[in-house]
Amino acid sequence: MSLIENIIRPEVRALSAYHVPDSSGLVKLDAMENPYTLPPALREELGRRLAEVALNRYPVPSYAALKAEICAGQGVPAGFDVVLGNGSDELISIISVACAKPGAKVLAPVPGFVMYAMSAQFAGLEFVGVPLKPDFTLDTAAMLDAIAEHRPAIVYLAYPNNPTGTLYDAGDMEQIIRAVGDSGIVVSDEAYQPFAPSSWMPRLAEFENLVVMRTVSKLGLAGIRLGYMAASQALLREFDKVRPPYNVNVLTETAARFVLQHADVLEAQAQALRDARSRLADALSALPEIQVFPSAANFLLIRVQFERIDAQNVFDKLLEHKVLIKNVGKMHPLLHNCLRVTVGTRQENRQFLDALKASLAECRI
Ligand SMILES: *Cc1c(COP(=O)(O)O)cnc(C)c1O
Q1: Residues lining ligand 1, judged by CB closer than 6 Å?
Q2: Which CATH number fits domain 3-38+264-364: 3.90.1150.10, 3.30.200.20, 1.10.150.20, 3.40.50.300?
Q3: Phi and psi for 37 in degrees, rounded to 5?
Q4: Among candidates 209, 253, 192, which has minimal Cα distance to 64?
Q5: Residue 365 CA to ligand 1 centre (angstroms)
Q6: pLDDT tens across 323-344, in order?
Q7: Fewest beta carbons within 10 Å, which of 69, 135, 276, 344?
Q8: 169-228 pLDDT, tens per residue?
Q9: Domain locations in the chain?
Q10: Best of 114, 155, 215 to mutate for ligand 1, by most ligand atoms within 8 A of CB?
């Protein structure tokens, strides 16, 4: 046996590394980033604030100021607190590690966010994926059966879901939260909350087992890596023990505090993207080859519905036209021939639409 075989867990060796394609020179519509930057005056002020940060000191470990501002500004109900993560990816990992009793299981609808299954695997938890219906709504009966069978310690419901954009029915979710009861937690992953019409945050007090997770990534701060989760103090106390002590760095802390004090700027950007989303959806729906699924996020899931046209070919042609989106068709059978495109600026969306029309015409030949 080689060194690698001797020391690295087989399930880790079997994985392929998370692949991020090179996007230089391309219209980048693959990763749900906000295409807008901060206005110049705010950027200058942010620069001044960052210059004053004591880089030689560890962060204040309680993060009390940032947490208090998040609680006050993001609608965390009174009596509830947040735990911060280096992106919500780290929060998912913290939850997995904290709940990784021998034999414990994680359950989520599929297709869904890949990190739920990855993180479960890293922590030695079993992942159970329950297929959505073909229209990507929750198969509540199948979810309830799976919950009864597996008694999962963690259930993830992305609200709205990635990569489908679906906002699950609140009544369905409530049934699931109640069915899980005190044998598990239900995480409402609200990464796309700025683009969605509703949230579970105001309802935290109704459900002892509910965790509401959010990130500033899709809001326009993907580069600083900051996520937070709100839940009962009792749950957060346990999760906080697993959190690496200084997991949010001082630059992130300072930038987040500054930008969240100007949340109106980000909200205006989110509003522009919500408007652009409906214009883009309308334009795509007008193409006979394309089916558009309803989305409450800053991206659209589309299907190339002419079986003669392979979505991979469309994706490749789009790249030739310098537009990068995401081919999700191989992620799950329900996503057959599906592509996911992030909503960008008016100009980016126009470039994408023109490139898509040209690509479809080239694929038809
Ligand atoms: C993007 C995304 C995240 C991860 O966000 P980070 O804070 O950037 O780690 C979490 N959940 C869902 C559903 C996402 O799409």
Answers
A1: 87-89, 113, 158, 162, 189, 191, 215, 217, 222, 227
A2: 3.90.1150.10
A3: -105, 180
A4: 253
A5: 38
A6: 999 999 999 999 999 999 999 9
A7: 135
A8: 999 999 999 999 999 999 999 999 999 999 999 999 999 999 999 999 999 999 999 999
A9: 3-38+264-364, 58-261
A10: 215
